[in-house]
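Proteins fold reproducibly. Look at a sample protein:
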Amino acid sequence: MRGSTGIVLPVTSHPDPPLDRAHPPPGRTLPAPRTAARLPTTPLVRPADVGAGVWDLLLRDGHLVRLRDDVALPAGVRATPALRAAALAPLVPPRCAVARAAAVWVHVGGDPPARVDVVAPRGARVPRPTAGRSAAAAALPDGDVVLLGGVRVTTPRRTAVDVLSHDPPDRALALVARLRATGLDAARVRADVATAAGRRGVRAAAALLPHLAASAAPRAE
């Protein structure tokens, strides 16, 4: 199966592991590949793009690598912040932005969060919470948002302030440590917390600031 990305994904209905078609076992004729639906115009693949049965086969045989839940990438395609953001697009209404742990995942990768936090700017309609999404309204200046893969995501600095303000301390510090792989400057985070005086959760964020310097900076994926 060849998608618009030019990546060939062989799909067969045979339950055994993939066989070498150039050197088949003696006396055995291999079935011709079964063509499935075309891949979408982006590297992201969902079950609806290829069919549930083919989706399972592609994952089983290693032709697709799961990115999160029901979104995967063809084997060999590197996950990037833009692709991770695009994977969340159905959960992010216009004017809203991916925030907190989900934003950390977009920026640096790692294990995807089970729930996607979405923030709506004040005055905008707050999206309805779902099983996989929570939503809230907050001040959201343009400078606190970056566009990745067509999806609005809070910047690493804004994301750091948000997780320090709203997540449990140990989790918040671990998330900020991961964000340092983006080049996040702890001194600027401290300044951002200071200028956010009066915002909900900022006192909790300020109490965690002395611990930021001890956080290690992992490498981004």
